[in-house]
Amino acid sequence: MAGTIVVDRIESDASYASSINVASQITFSNTVNLTVASTFPAGTVGAPSITTSGDTNTGLYFPAADTIGFVEGGVEAGRFNSSGNLQINNLGLGATTPSTSGTGITFPATASASSDANTLDDYEEGSWTPTLGGNTTYSVQEGKYTRIGNFVYAVGIVVVTTLGTGSTTTLSGLPFTSAVQSNRFPGSIAFYSSIAVSIVTMYCFTNNNSVTVQFGTVASSQSGTDDTRAIFGNSAHVQFSICYRV
Questions:
Q1: N or C end of the chain, less CB within 10 A?
Q2: Are 196 and 231 in contact (CB under 8 A)?
Q3: CB–CB of 243/194 below 8 Å?
Q4: How far, in Å, CA of 25 to CA of 31, rounded?
């Protein structure tokens, strides 16, 4: 039906079982209060009950009582549960694209630092390669790290084959540059063997504003630490961890 429909009166308790398709407009000759209630089937993930005509596998469905589900491409992307909590299967922050690997929160590849101390603005997991530089060769050379906010927790292992022109005291290659502060960020030595000197114990720390880990020792005749004594040589094996601020 095309044209104009003029409605003079609407009964407040009237029920209308039929529908009218109007191609033009409906006008009311008097001011009225009109309430329209619609109900929809629950739908499914593959066929949500509220969709657009051009994309019928994307929309809303109702998976349980008091629950609203959001569907994209026939896959549930999230829902409001019966407690009013929003559950999101995969969330991107800082205008980044959510990860396609599964569920979780995705942060941008480059952190967008927040001025709010109570805001988590970065998270990252990855690998790094500890190196002594020069022409050193290794049988094992591995590193892993996790960054949360402005702190990095890194672990590493090197087993030297031939030291060559590499450093005897310093590993480089940390995934992020350390902050500058008066106190050095200390690490922990989990294991060492075949190092170049005889010592009582070994320690490590990050150098300021750098991607290097400095190693030091305490010898039996010393009352303090020594950051300059040669540690790495042929066959040296060291496993360590370090936590530092960026």
A1: N
A2: yes
A3: no
A4: 16
- pLDDT tens column, 161-170: 999 999 999 9
Neighbours of 105 (CB within 10 A): 14
The C-alpha atoms of residue 203 and residue 240 are separated, in whole angstroms, by 9
Would you say the pTM of this structure is higher than 0.90?
A: no
Residue type, 154: A
Read off the tokens for 109: 């590849």
Distance CA 209, CA 18 (A): 75
Task: Give the sign of the dihedral formed by CA 235, CA 240, CA 245, CA 246.
Answer: positive
Bridge partners, residue 127, by sequence: 144
* Digit-coded pLDDT (tens) for 181-213: 887 899 999 999 999 888 888 899 999 999 999
Answer whether residue 60 shows pLDDT above 70: yes
Sign of CA dihedral 39, 42, 47, 50: positive
Find tokens 């020594």 and name the residue.
226
Domains of the chain, by residue range, sit at 90-115, 126-245
